Amino acid sequence: SNAMRQENGSGGGGRAVNGGPRLRDAADKTPSPSSCEASSEEAHLPHGPLWSGHRTFLSIYRDDDGKLFAHRDSSFHCNNGDDNGIAWLWMVVWCNCFIIMGLSLQGFSLQSLATRHGLNYFDTGSLFSATKATAIVGSLLSHSLMSVIYPSHMMVFGVVLKALAVAALGALHWLPVNETVFMALGATVKSIGGVGLSLYFTATYSLLFYKHQSSYIVPLILSEVAVGIGGLLGPILGFVLIEVWMYPLPYFAVAGCMLLGILIAVALPLDSCVPLEKTLKLSTCSAVAFLADARVLVDLVTLALGGITMAHFDTTLIAHLTSVNVSDPHADYSFAVVFGAYAIGAIIFGVVTAKFEADALVIFIAQLVSCAAFLFVGPVQFIPIPTKLWLTRLGVGLAGFAAAGQFLPVMARVVHSATWRNQSSDLWTITAAVAVSYAASQLGGLAASLFSAYVADVSGPAAACTVLFIIQASWAVARFLVWITECAMHAHASRVS
If phi over 0 gives left and psi between -120 and 50 gives alpha, with beta otherwise, what is residue 423? Predict the structure, then answer.
């Protein structure tokens, strides 16, 4: 949902290389053919769909020796040629779009269903927090799973879990009105969805950084734009489909589209040629040593605040719209604004970070924009700002825009910090950095889902925005100091050199 930094030889402030830093150690050896190439004895088959009608799913898996999505081209090397193997991004774009579409349409539709069962804002926030809590566990668990499961298999498994969870949420429409049963089933389904969400995104981001180490910026922007577009279309199309039939239809449609991603993976095919032995050689301690760096901890807090920026609206946007007397038919557009602005932010922040080598400045600006978002959405209680629909939607859009800057460049800073320290960019280390980053973002979302919903019940949504504005503004000071410090370090390094 990533900073582009390259430390110079003197150890001073980092500057990004145009197009993104090359993370891999130059001395990294090419993997042996036995671990990354198809056997020379295998018949050469052209890239494309692996089945011709008579082959079964299991026979394909068996014939590929467990590598269901592996390339058959004997000249293919996973660790060489950062520009090779980009076809897998088609699956990433597709799945990112529909996974986030499934999340965004819950903003207005699940809220109405929860209200029908008698749930207040905090109860609904607890349902959303179940996704965040299990996503934290799933992201940390994925670091270990990467040593025994091919990343592409973990991506597919995550998509399947998330699709089943989304379909099950749609089926809750037929549940008789019963608050306790709805809470229990809803929390269970949302928890399963959280695990699938984290497994998919951890594997995706890990592969993205690992396979495109010298040019990850464009694939990363593409991935996050797909997230924004999916979130933009989810509420709008969901509302239209509900009008056509009933509540479950958009959930079933989105779940089905998610599962089509598996067919895309097989048809490409999705190369899972990542050697397992490379991840098994390293210890967990070596993979997480980067957490001792204070700069990494600052970035992780920023990721958590980015999660807060987005998750606040899961349960309180309806309350904000109610305060300005906006009826439900208009709510879907406000939810769409969040993710539409996120897509725009991903493009702008990503391009500016890469072109002008200014990741610290970009993150500081994103932090300021987040402050402005909560200033207008509430509006905050200590400033006499009128409660207007256009101001609320402006604040919502600024929040989505800021969240892109609090996530995309920051995750890359964490990954680069992890790989730069030991000049090692193995999959094990990259996955550790991605897992910790994603867990930090979800932890912030977990806190916001519960806190914002509770305060909205007790004191109204404006009070929640006031508290979050103070938190975001305080951290903006910290990000300003980081930017100034890195500028000074870079200037000193330039004089020395």
Answer: left
Tokens found for residue 404: 């892109």
Is residue 41 in some structural domain?
no
Between CA 146 and CA 154, with CA 150 as vertex, the angle to 5 degrees is 75
Q: By percentage, how much of the chain surpasses pLDDT 70?
A: 75
In a domain, 107, yes or no: yes
Name, in order, each residue with C-beta under 8 angstroms of 173's C-beta and a sequence gap of 6 or more: 113, 246, 247, 248
Cα 141 to chain centroid, rounded: 16
pLDDT tens track for 206-247: 988 887 776 778 888 999 999 999 999 988 888 888 877 777
Helix axes 331-356, 359-377, angle to 10 degrees: 160
Tell me, yes or no, whether 43 lies in a domain.
no
CB–CB of 348/369 below 8 Å? no
> Does the CA dihedral 80-85-89-91 come out positive or negative?
negative
Q: Which helix (H) or strand (E) holds 255?
A: helix 248-267
- Domain-embedded: residue 4: no
Overall domain count for the chain: 1
Q: What is the Cα–Cα distance from 172 to 185, expressed in whole angstroms?
A: 8
Tell me what the mean pLDDT of segment 82-92 comes to.
67
As a whole number of angstroms, the distance between CA 242 and CA 221 comes to 31
Which pLDDT score is estimated for 284?
58
The Cβ-side half-sphere exposure at 279, using a 13 Å CA radius, reads: 23
CATH number at residue 481: 1.20.1250.20
Q: Which two tokens stand for residue 20?
A: 């993104």
What local confidence, expressed as pLDDT, does residue 264 receive?
81
Q: Which residue, 215, 457, 413, is CA-closest to 300? A: 413
The beta strand positions in 181-224, using DSSP E, are none
Burial 167-196 (b: 16+ CB within 10 A, else e): bbbbebeeeeeeeeebbebbbebbbbbbbb
* pLDDT given at position 287: 67
Look up residue 336 and give its DSSP letter: H
Helix (H, G, I), strand (E, B) or coil at 283: coil
Closest to 119 in 3D by CA, of 44, 178, 53, 200: 178
The conformational region for residue 20 under phi > 0 = left, psi -120 to 50 = alpha, else beta, is left
The residue segments making up the domain with residue 482 are 55-71+83-496
Task: Provide the Cα torsion 252, 256, 259, 265; round to 10°.
Answer: -150
Burial class, 407, CB count within 10 angstroms (exposed 0-12 / middle 13-18 / buried 19+)? buried
